[in-house]
Amino acid sequence: MTEPKWKHDGVQVIPADTLDSSTAGKTAGMNRATAIDFARAGAQKLWAGTVHIHPGAKTGAHHHGPLESVIYVVRGRARMRWGDNLEFVAEAGPGDFIFVPPYVPHQEINAKEDETLECVLVRSDGQAVAINLDIEPAEKPENVKWIDPIHRH
Prior knowledge:
This protein is mainly beta and 153 residues long. Helix content is 3%, strand content 34%.
């Protein structure tokens, strides 16, 4: 008897306790765990997982090569720094999305001293890519408020 179509090649549920914390491209100051990638789920065009940043911790400066990244803040307060010298800064809280374009040097910071920052990450390729950079942060980052290009008012 033939297996029904999509039984093993359809929807996959990845339980929280089965995420892979041995993600390639480790970045100082953050713990990533892979939920979906090519190796684990056969994803061809995306990588998804979680990141936890301990209270008050800062990641090392890094970028993700040609990949686009989306960060969804689940709990805590994320402070993002970016630019050639990490000279720009913005913050995001629970329910906020952060978009990081390809090759943008950036650093994630847990803006809270008493709470772990918990986020969900999605990248535009089935492999995890993180390229660590040796960048000295600027003394006084410029605070940049994101303005939705559709609703500029």
